Amino acid sequence: MVEPDEAARTPELAVLSALAHGGRPDGGKTLESLVDAYGALDPDHRALYHDVVAAVLPQAARLYLETLMKLKNYEYQSDFARRYFGDGKAEGRAEGEVKGAAKIILMVLSGRGICVSPEVRDRITGCRDLGQLEAWAQRAGVVSTAAELFD
């Protein structure tokens, strides 16, 4: 795995690491380093590398990467990405972010093969605190059980 400071110095290594390890159950840290590496790249390389990495990642890992990019206020460079992931209208955005964060948490857990009880699912989908959901989303990539999200 490439550490965040190393990712900023050698972003291509972080891209290769994400391609090789980003889709694994323990790939969360690798994807976090990749987002740090994106900051060291020019817009053309950043868009190209992200497109390649996103194309090979399993859905849960790809959603986790997108969540990390949102949490770190990553600004998309390509016109397509800005339209697809862009801000949209301010009205309803907060509710959409809450629902999206809950959905991502559940998808990451499912993609990692972690069983989610109805109680845990209800707690995640019932939460309206975006900060709390974002914290759980970060943990979803590294926990062993769904209940560990809440520790």
Number of strands: 0
Biggest sheet descriptor: none
Q: Estimate percent helicity.
A: 55-70%
Approximate strand percentage: under 5%
Summarize the structure.
The protein is mainly alpha-helical.
Notes on the structure:
- This protein is mostly helical.
- The protein is built from 9 helices and no strands.
- The chain has helices at 4-9, 11-21, 28-38, 43-56, 59-71, 79-85, 93-111, 118-126, 130-140.
- The protein is globular and about 45 Å long.
- Residues 87-91 have low confidence and may be disordered.
Task: Please tag this protein with its features.
single chain, mainly alpha, 151 residues
Topology:
Elements: H1 4-9, H2 11-21, H3 28-38, H4 43-56, H5 59-71, H6 79-85, H7 93-111, H8 118-126, H9 130-140
Helix pairs in contact: 2-3, 3-5, 5-7, 7-9
